[in-house]
Amino acid sequence: MTAAGEILLGIFRQAWTLIAGLLVLVAILGGLAQVFKITGGVLLSSNIWVSQAVSGMLGVILIALIAFLSVPAIAHAALVSSATGCGPIAEIGQLAGMLIGGIGSLRMLKGTFLAVVSTSISGSGGVSNALIEIAETIFGMLLITVAAPVAAAFFGAC
Amino acid sequence: MGIFQVVYDNIANIARDAWGFMVGLLIIVAMLGGLYYALQGGAGMAFGGSKMAAYAIIGIVGLVVVVLIAFLMLPELGTLLQNNTPKAPF
Is residue B89 in some structural domain? Predict the structure, then answer.
């Protein structure tokens, strides 16, 4: 079971690297698109366009940077705090905790990726959706860390 | 990146092409904008419109500054992001 878990975690790690790489690509291209908007705004003498594009470009980079710094910290904190049960189900609990942590981290990164894509095209709902997804993931992970010991105690494993 | 390497390489190639296309387009737009401002400034000078000429000079300088800032700043920001790409926390 541990070997199967390791294989899955390896795939999750590779997916994490892929999403992080794509996030960088999208952020850079989104920044360039905002530069287009700035240039158009300058040519058409549109102050609103210029200000929107400048804030959009900085926003894209900031969201990506904050995501890169905060998502691993959040995932690490949630994983460290996970009590994985006791007795014979300790191993299963540990494995489940790792897998849930991996899926949760991927989900948070995916939410951030969508936020960056949305901001790149001047969308407004992406960031709030990403925040909701991150909050859902954290709550889910915390809930599971509570549920595993309770279930273990209920079934008399501890 | 393991099994996703092929996917990433393909998308990165497309993104690289898109980057080159957009940079080229940006240069063309900036050059056309510069030409427009040059015409405006020329007309202003020909007809004694000092305000027109001043706006044109400011516009052309602003355009160059914007494009230069973008070309210098964006690659730096991209490098910053790439350097801060985190490893998987699990």
Answer: no
